[in-house]
Model the fold of this input.
Amino acid sequence: MNYNLGSRGSEHLTRGILFANFNQDCTSLAVGTKQGYKLFAINSVDGLEVIYDNEGETTDVCLVDRLFSSSLVAIVSVSSPRKLKVCHFKKGTEICNYSYSNTILSVKLNRIRLVVVLEESLYIHNIRDMKVLHTIRDTPSNPKGLCCLSVNNDNSFLVYPGSSITGEVQIFDVTTLNAVSTINAHDSPLAAMAFNSSATKLATASSKGTVIRIFSVPDGQKLFEFRRGVKRCVSIGSLAFSPDSLFLCASSNTETVHIFKLEQAGVEKAPVTDEGASWIGYFNKVLSNSASYLPTQVSEVLNQGRDFATVKLPFQGSRNVCAITVLQKLPRVLVADEDGFLYIYNLDPTEGGECVLLRQHNVAQFGQQAAQDIPETSAAYHDSDSPPHFHSTSVNEQLDMPETLHVDTNVVSINESSNH
Done:
């Protein structure tokens, strides 16, 4: 997941960061700003390394996605919201660009496909030559460009909303270019989705923000259900699994990031001898036993899991993106916010509880005097749905990735008949 302020109006363009996301394996952070975009290597808690800074070359960058640790990046700017540029940042060259009929809301990459999301259509490109392989048209209105592309080559799935009224998820195989299945995940519209690294699990959250569910892929069986809270509805903007798929983090417009532990069903915990704890255990057992004859809605609430750990952010109301990764051999929770800060917290995989803030980095002012003070707070254009227009200015760019990108030099206008 990521956040994109470019589509929220000019009043939001004064924030430190227009866009931020972590790459597919969480080894780098990409940020888009009014001055351009930056790529940071995340190798340790204490220091960030600037991989690339294109300040002044392309301004007002509202989307930027890097393909793993390669030199391939896809970028979109506020001034040209319909144009996608694919670049080789180490060589400073533009490989190709595509122009679409409407504003680009999201771009996703894996090692075989590049997916461009418009409000009512998705374009699936072959990553090797950037040709459009398939177009999914007339999708339900998706103004936030919500979608998720798995990073696993063997299970290369794309998920996107199947309804603008309910939380229906459509699963599409981008290798075979076939629809796979539908998951009725929530009663309310979808707000966030995330695959685990093997694309065998999918986490979803709805616009209510109270319940997070995890389903098996591709059959859609519900595996886990967690309750974020009951006091208030929130806007969940980011979900992310840990590399081992044991934990899931969820961030929102509140000051709390919730981390859930995916414990296997049926695994019994060791008996507790403490009297107070025994009473709690007895109470929970009574509730569990009574769930069989309680109303379905009450029973579901009793069976929902709670968070295993939490992160208390020094702000609320700001958009952010979260991730769980391993730094210096220990699990860490990362949070990047729209004020230009990256926060790194320690996660205790055994005890859980409140995560400890280890370090914060000011990525908006990186390279300047990056203060460590914690901040106090923190239009889509439409016309007919026509295919993208392609132009290439660079041939056979050799990337430091498993496969070579081959692009033809001529200008191509893709016909409707060539798409599916």
In short: The radius of gyration is 22 Å. The helical segments are 275-290, 296-303. The first helix runs from residue 275 to 290.
